[in-house]
Write a structure and sequence with these properties.
Blueprint lengths: L4 H22 L11 H14 L5 H8 L3 H6 L3 H15 L19 E10 L21 E9 L5 E8 L4 H5 L10 E4 L6 H9 L3 E4 L6 E4 L5 E2 H7 L4 E8 L5 E9 L2 H17 L6 H6 L2 E6 L9 H9 L2 H11 L12 H22 L11 H10 L1 H10 L2 H16 L12 H5 L2 H4 L1
Parallel strand pairs: 1-4, 4-5
Antiparallel strand pairs: 1-2, 2-3, 5-10, 6-7, 6-8, 8-9, 9-10
Helix pairs in contact: 1-2, 1-5, 1-16, 2-3, 2-13, 2-15, 5-13, 13-14, 15-16
């Protein structure tokens, strides 16, 4: 649904008010009358960490007028169940900004970007959320989260959390397939020939990067590994029809560009560090692929979608990485002061809800590709979180509406993105050669 001040106010009042109180009674968090109610607990954590992502329990206990020990004692299994119920209700709401006409993107009904992120947990949660390990065992416990972001309107769907060791493909299956005529920009971790073939049958367009050990067949020739085929190519730019895979085969368009030497070296260094952290060795195929930017797509007509347009379209995928950055670095989603399992889970769930509220509020100004910086809008929302918390605590929808109206006016006054020597994704999308 298109977001509005009144719609968001109604959602916040329901979710963080009567909805949280009802969930608290159902899970046994508020069996008898206490100073800390279900709604009070949820509001203190969610809106407290929205305002100050790295706040201590002392900071959160102050608005409740209780001692920090009293708040600390409420971090138990019932508190986790309470927050899980409120989060589940929150995830059913799919707010979005009013769509903006962006020339290159208007060819698609939607532009969906999907990616997963991992968050480390205390080792005491290893049984419930086993991680992928690592040489220093810092990954003994972790969870994984998937976000599906619609790039034009900013609508977000979230799948998970699941154990960090869980398959990306299983998590990916939890989000719905975009509608016909849409464009899907998928992270390399979700590369799946069967899914890509199914998307093509459903008239869903896609652009994807490729794994290093992919088998391809070009122009009816013999099958070859991708890295080996690229090493034999003399040209620096390739745009060919290819068949991918051995068992599950897929015909598509493959576009590859050889990158400058300094870019290849930077990629190689980043890859080495990443593999070392996971205790793996660099393969020859991975090394070779660092020298190329390779994409595959079912947008087959080179007259409608040139190589350059494909690069620009795939660049839009970076918006979901920026979303995770706002959630984790700016919102403290990956940070917890708690070492006990229940405290750590409560903090994660509350901060994820805070991240969703922050995302919804920024949509009052526009989607992630709007004329205003999404990061700047998110920071402005955080500055208004205390006033929003006061209005929600009063239980008055009129008070919440008033705060949101003032917030929206504040967001509308934000300066437009500054022009840079290195163009932003929005500036590139609006470049003259892509608007005609």
């Amino acid at each position: 649904m298109v977001i509005s001040v009144h719609g968001l106010a109604a959602a916040l009042q329901t979710l963080l008010g009567e909805g949280a109180d009802k969930a608290g009674k159902e899970v046994g968090f508020s069996v008898r009358k206490r100073k800390i109610t279900g709604a009070g607990f949820v509001q203190a954590l969610v809106l407290g960490w929205l305002s100050r992502p790295f706040a201590t329990l002392d900071d959160l206990a102050a608005p409740l007028d209780v001692r920090v020990q009293s708040l600390h004692q409420r971090f138990n299994a019932r508190a986790v169940a309470l927050l899980q119920r409120v989060l589940a209700a929150m995830l059913e709401l799919l707010f979005q900004a009013r769509p903006e006409t962006i020339p290159l993107l208007r060819r698609f009904s939607e532009v969906c970007i999907e990616a997963a992120t991992s968050i480390a947990l205390p080792a005491s949660l290893a049984d419930a959320f086993p991680g992928c390990g690592g040489p220093d065992q810092t990954g003994k416990a972790s969870l994984k989260l998937l976000a599906q972001l619609e790039a034009i309107t900013g609508r977000v769907r979230v799948a998970g959390p699941v154990a960090g060791r869980a398959s990306d493909h299983a998590l990916h299956a939890e989000v719905p397939t975009p509608p016909p005529g849409s464009l899907r920009l998928v992270d390399l971790g979700f590369f799946d020939l069967e899914r890509m073939a199914e998307d093509t049958r459903r008239e869903v367009h896609w652009i994807s990067r490729v794994p290093a050990r992919l088998t391809i067949r070009v122009d009816g020739g013999p099958p070859s590994d991708l890295a080996g085929w690229l090493s034999r190519c003399k040209a620096d730019r390739l745009d060919v029809m290819a068949t991918l895979g051995t068992k599950d085969k897929l015909d598509c368009r493959l576009v590859a560009v050889r990158v400058p030497k300094e870019v290849a070296e930077r990629r190689l260094e980043r890859l080495r560090k990443k593999l070392k952290k996971k205790g793996r060795k660099l393969s020859a195929a991975q090394r070779a692929l660092c020298e190329w930017t390779v994409m595959v797509t079912n947008l087959l007509d080179a007259n409608l979608f040139t190589e350059e347009q494909l690069w620009v379209l795939y660049r839009v995928r970076w918006q979901v990485e920026l979303l995770f950055k706002r959630w984790k670095s700016g919102g403290g989603l990956a940070f917890s002061r708690g070492r006990s399992p229940n405290r750590a889970l409560c903090e994660f769930l509350a901060k994820l809800m805070a991240a969703l509220i922050k995302q919804w509020a920024t949509l009052l100004r526009g989607g992630p590709l709007s004329v205003v910086s999404a990061a700047g809008a998110a920071k402005r929302v955080m500055l208004w979180a205390d006033r929003l918390a006061e209005a929600v605590a009063r239980g008055s929808r009129e008070a919440i509406i008033e705060v949101l109206q003032r917030l929206k006016k504040n967001l509308d006054g934000l300066p437009k993105r500054a022009r840079r020597a290195r163009r932003t994704t929005r500036q590139t999308l609006f470049a003259p050669r892509f608007t005609t």
